[in-house]
Write the structure tokens for this entry.
Amino acid sequence: MIYLDHTATMIPERELLEYYVECALEYPANPASIHSAGFAARKAQASAINQLAKSFDCRPEELLITSGGSESINMAIKGALAANKRLGQRVLISEGEHSAVAETAKWLTSHGYIVETIGLSAEGIIDLKQLEQALKKPAAMLSLIYVNNETGAAAPVEEVVRLRNSLQPDMLIHVDGVQACGKLSWSFKRLGVDLFSGSGHKFGAPRGIGFLIHRYGIKIEPLIHGGGQQRGLRSGTENVPLVMTMARAAEIANNDLAQKTDYISGLKRQLLDRLTELGVSYMPLSPVNAVPGIVSLAVEGLRGETLLHALENNEIFVSTGSACSSKKREESAVLRAMKLPEDLIKGSIRISLSKSNTIEEIDTVAEAISQAVKWLVRR
Amino acid sequence: MEDINKHGIDKPLELAATEELILIRLGEIALKGMNRGKFEGQLMRNIRNRLRNIGKFEVNHSQSRVWAIPLDEDADMAAALDAISKVFGIVSVSPVRSFHGDIDQICLQAVEYARLLLADGRKMSFKVESRRGDKNFPLKSPEICREVGAALLLAYPEQLTVDVNNPDFVFYVEVRDLNYIYHTVIKAQKGLPVGMGGRGMLLLSGGIDSPVAGYMMSSRGMQIEAIYFHAFPFTSNQAKEKVIELARLLTPYAGSIRLHVVNFTDIQLKIRDDSPTDMITIVMRRIMMRIAERLAISRGCKALITGESLGQVASQTLEGLVTTDHVVACPVFRPLIGMDKDDTVQLARKIGTFETSILPYEDCCTVFVAKHPKTHPSLAHAEEAEAALDIEALVEQGLNDIEVIDL
């Protein structure tokens, strides 16, 4: 199997899963229990959260553990708006948002909020001129995707924050950082945003865990009420070994990130060069500033889905558009927002690379694409 | 201690041993003349086949009724009822209780039977209907009704009331070789037993219509086989799995089905490359019909079945149908031809194929559709569009690359 769908989910390393089992056996107690086994679990969790805070460059008390990206995003948007009603009901999002944000925005609309959508530039990032225009009026929140899950385009978050600071300093900024973790180097402190959502399985942890960073002093209302865990903001018994595993995954993801990014850039170059050498006519859809691990491209004369199935026949696994929305079979809203022609949108496939892929695999993939083109594209 | 019930005329009546069985009422078959026996024989074989996976049952025929009698004590009667109610040729089925005895025994059994119905203390209205097949039975039907009704009212005065016009349940009593009591009549599919209407080859796609067309022909007693044209990777393997599942969903009605999956990819590529874009769909369908007919003949099928409905899509105009029919000699049955889509959907929901049909995998009809396909092709058009293709070779190619799946 050649797995090129790391953006959909990363395959956790065996050592990390073994680490989970170890932690689960060593800290079996409920961290809220007041006996010594509970205390041990509590201590282990606190240390894992400190470790995560270090990886993300935030304070431990700014960090909340959730069940994953969607929960974090829902909590960031609904929770912060509910707790900051004085900021009003105008909410801004970009056209490039993942459905976790876009659908939450729809929910907001049905609950009295006014959601405005800012378009994308041809590079697939938020149109800063449009944003500047929109910031002439007060808004409660801007929710922005950091690294786009379909194209890999990385948003100029610092610039957006600068705009906010000068035009609407009260407005909250939530960053959907789900695809940024493990793909680029970021620091919560330096970004200057108020809320940051992330998901463990996108950077090597198992599924079922994510995090939300909320800047110190920013109020949020809980989505889930109950036993009052995590400062009353997110009830539910904490999964200590899973928190420990995510902390370990974040640490591993951050290690030698620059070097890994270089390696993945090399894989991407190799893929595109090989395709050109083999005479495959394709159009890269990922913009120049995209993270190298997400390569969106369209092969001339071939639908993305057809190519996906042809590759699957060779045990090569890629995606069309975003895996989460593929089931709905709608065409990519992000590519449409980039004003790409219909044929390219229908033809788009997403190849996502990671450090676990090899040059040999990339050569095999390029060869398989070339074979599929020879077989299936009109002569 | 001496058993006082052994003597004395006032001995309280004891419940006789009972048997639970399934009463199967025949439909159209009952109208048949000389060949009625053949239809009944086929129907009983079909019922036996369907019950084979559920448990041991004896299926027999007496007094213009068919009976399914469980031979295991723990036979799954609910599953058996469900299976039998899907066999074509049956109007309705009832789970019944049988026993020997006189009118007193019938009343006693009725009271016992009703105990379960009224178990949670609910109040219900009822009426009794009876049939007297055994003309030697001392009471006539209206008298049986009266006796049984009175016994039930006496036993459950707080819970039961009589309502002859709109009762909550009807209590049925039939007096034949044995006595039978029941209160449920489950509607079945009617139609004729599969196997009595010849064999047909169903062109099965992944859509809503073709499984319904198969169901309808099957309901007229036709034994069906199915053919599916698979164009991987233009259509995914999930699309093929979906078609297999659709065929499987038809088997409770149609009996076992042989599904032929034709590898259609290279044929489709040649059609795409060597015929005009706006005629691709028509040419493709003409080639599919040719392959289907040749396969049908080799499998002893005398007709093709499609789910086409007039005017539904561009290729299903009258001209479109004429051009596709022209390439085959056998009859093409299109049971949905005059049906509204809503009614087809309703039927698909009833037979249980709808949810599978709407799974979002493309079938090969939709992959190469031109933006503006020809809606009114003439025969000359179609023949001209095929001029550059070696039709015979393509048909041969299709027939030589078939995967057979028995369901």
In short: Confidence is low (pLDDT under 50) at residues 322-327 of chain A. The CA atoms of residues 20 and 242 of chain A lie 6 Å apart.
